[in-house]
Amino acid sequence: MHRRARSIEDKTRRSEDLLAAAEALALELGGVRHITLAPVTERAGLHRTGVRRYYASKEELLLELAERGWGRWRDAIEDEVGDRTGLGPRQIAAVVAGTLASLPVFCDLLTHVPLSLEGDVDIERARRYKTNSFAAHDEIASTLDRASSMTVEQIEGLLATALMLAAGLWQVSHPTPTLAALYEQVPRWGHVALDFAPKLGFLLEATAVGLAGTTAPAEATAPAEATAPADAN
Fold this sequence. Notes:
Layout: H1 8-29, H2 37-44, H3 58-81, H4 89-101, H5 104-117, H6 123-147, H7 152-173, H8 177-185, H9 196-212
């Protein structure tokens, strides 16, 4: 039975139900590209027209999910680091890779945010996403800076690489049914579709070690667009 939310608490709960439903369906179906509003609202127990009271579009719903992902990643890194200090490049890379791999829907969304989600919502919603994702990014960098022997510039470089790799590798390692069938027929074409977490960890470790031995140019002391979470890069 579909019931209409009356109180602020009810509306908040329904909004959370929609996000949880979208995340669950993305995991079940193999990615957010398969998400449509009708199954999401049905899973959340709402009438399909009721979603408009909470989110203006599928894109706004998924952008909200991406924004929540930034908060989850920040919290996961803070929990993983704890009170530790003096962590080396390999340890920092393991923290970044492990926490990202624990958030598969967020990794998936990192591709879709710059491609469509940000551009398909109104400017104020896009502004809110930018504000909150940048804040989470900066908190992540600050947490890793306190715990690490790496410099801030090196950490920001690692985070930029992590975002780009997580976005790309997730898509490659979760092929469509057509590509999966093709890889079975011609295995050598699927050699790049490796396990997501091990590949991410290996590449981030190599990146962190390389960055730790590199002196950043003076201009890198200012946050660069390439490291900005808004691009999901």
